């Protein structure tokens, strides 16, 4: 809900409750959360807003389909959580090594567990990674190489993110029925001799810093000029 409509939050919740009741459902306010995204330099103003309901908790971060989103739209909380989980997986790998698993099998397990967790939904949050976040993730990969949990040819995390972006974008391009196709209209026919692009989609307008965090916009503009 945009800030201009903040005064109508209670009415919106009442509307949702009415819709749920009509469809034989019930909105559980005690399990619902509220998060406020504010522009830079204006974050303090959000503290003045009253809560829409006594039973709805206001939080600074949410877990959405396994990805942690915070009120600053950065990936710092998600990166911290993923690294903590992956460090626990390294302990499990150490136990497997103590029980005699071969190095090749250990590296296969590393790929199937640790790398899969690190790159889960990467296109959705990698654009919000700061340089410090990427440095932490790359450092984790280097440490895993030193400990022998992964191959010395394992790409850096930055390369893994780029590969995930390309794979995701190519799946959209190749599937005309993809749910994101409506957001990527075809480029109109041009009769000029221009440099060939890697895609034939219309470039979306970039209006703000947050646009660079969007995977689709990043891939549309990548190598376009």
Q: N-to-C terminal Cα separation, in Å? A: 36 Å
Count of domain modules: 3
Roughly what percent helix?
Answer: 40-55%
Tell me, rounded to a whole number, the average pLDDT.
Answer: 80
Number of extended strands: 4
| Radius of gyration, in angstroms, nearest whole number | 22 Å
Shape: globular
Largest sheet: 2 strands, parallel
3D structure, described in words:
There is one protein chain. With 225 residues, the chain is mainly α. The chain folds into three domains: 3-59, no CATH class; 76-161, no CATH class; 177-221, no CATH class. The protein is 44% helix and 5% strand. The chain has seven helices and four strands. A hairpin with a 2-residue loop joins strand 3 and strand 4. Helix 2 packs parallel to helix 5. It is globular and about 60 Å long. It starts with 8 loop residues before the first helix and ends with a helix.
Keywords:
225 residues; mainly alpha; two-stranded parallel sheet; 7 helices; 4 strands; 5% strand; globular
